Description:
This protein is of the alpha/beta class. It has nine helices and five strands. It has a five-stranded parallel sheet, sandwiched between helices.
Amino acid sequence: MHRTRFIVIEGLIGVGKTSLCRLLKDRWSARLVLEPWDDNPFLAAFYSDQERYAFPTQMFYLASRYSQQLRLARGELTDPFVVADYLFEKDRLFAEETLKGDEMALYDRFASLLGGTIPAPEFVLFLDAPTEVIRSRIARRAIEAEQVIAADYLDSLRRRYYTLWDRYDDAPVYVLDSTNLDYVHDPESQATVLAMLQGWLDGEPVPGSPEPYHGRIGPKQLHLFGKG
């Protein structure tokens, strides 16, 4: 019987998750399930006026992500290896950050109807980096809508991610600091990350790989936050 291997690469905006997914497409012929962020007609307006555009932005993402994940759950993606650059459960992290009151209640009503049909990955790799590093990467890639993203927003979102990892038990979560990993241009970085991923898939982690994440943010993660 055919079995699709499914993993998730997660992380903050600009941390390098989609670049890693594309590397897996090139090296392992992975089928990509990518966040539909550039298709969201409300996104640019949201970054400029979050309070006004938060709800339509979030509902567009919820519907789009669910549609993608449903195809995987139904077995419509028959590729031997599928990698997504988001975890469906993370959708609520953004909702918690931007929605309030009746909008949050309405979001939860819709989200609760959808979540039970979503497939779990074999593992999640959460890429992280200090806030100032992420902001410099955002500046370099020069996507206009992202240039107004504040350090406080990234710090708050990161905390919500770690809160999610504290309670997430559908699959192992590995946390990797991507500050010094250039898997777009550096063959050594590419080999390092690919070896880690292969080890986790095989159930034989390579020496030096992160252990599964357990518990709350510790001293090793505190340096990732901005200074104020």
